[in-house]
Design a protein that fits this description.
alpha+beta, four-stranded antiparallel beta sheet
């Protein structure tokens, strides 16, 4: 009888080890894309989400699938490019807008799933830049 109980215990323990972990979060979502836009020559606060023309910016929709963190980097360009994160109503919720040339980056923490727009704007830079974003589940 003792041998039967011991064998059953070993089988149950081995089965528990074979089960996948339900607590593991999904893999991060990452995307890289190139943006081409004409320079506007006007500062971010005035123009990026509406003025002066649609040719100086690029809008990229993103659906945050759950609670998590979105990290966005704008790089690989000449001159000054900026970035905005807009909520579903078009309101600014995060931005990267340093003066002058160089990479830009921003981070936003979502409390739940949401639709947003990543807007990349050519302030006074070369015609292209690269945007990379990573959404990490929490």
């Amino acid at each position: 009888m003792r041998r039967t109980v011991l064998s059953a215990t070993v089988l149950v323990a081995a089965g528990a080890l074979a089960l996948p972990s339900a607590a593991a979060p999904p893999k991060p979502i990452t995307k890289t894309y190139t943006v081409t836009a004409a320079p506007s020559g006007i500062g971010l606060a005035i123009y990026c989400n509406g003025f002066p023309t649609p040719t100086d910016k690029h809008s990229e929709p993103f659906k945050a699938p759950a609670k998590g963190t979105l990290k966005v980097k704008i790089s690989g360009h000449v001159g000054d490019w900026d970035g905005l994160l807009l909520d579903a109503a078009g309101e600014r919720i995060a931005e990267a807008a340093t003066m002058g040339a160089g990479d830009e980056a921003y981070t936003y923490k979502f409390k739940k799933a949401a639709d947003v727009t990543l807007m990349t704007c050519n302030v006074i830079g070369g015609p292209t830049t690269t945007v990379t974003y990573t959404f990490t589940f929490s």
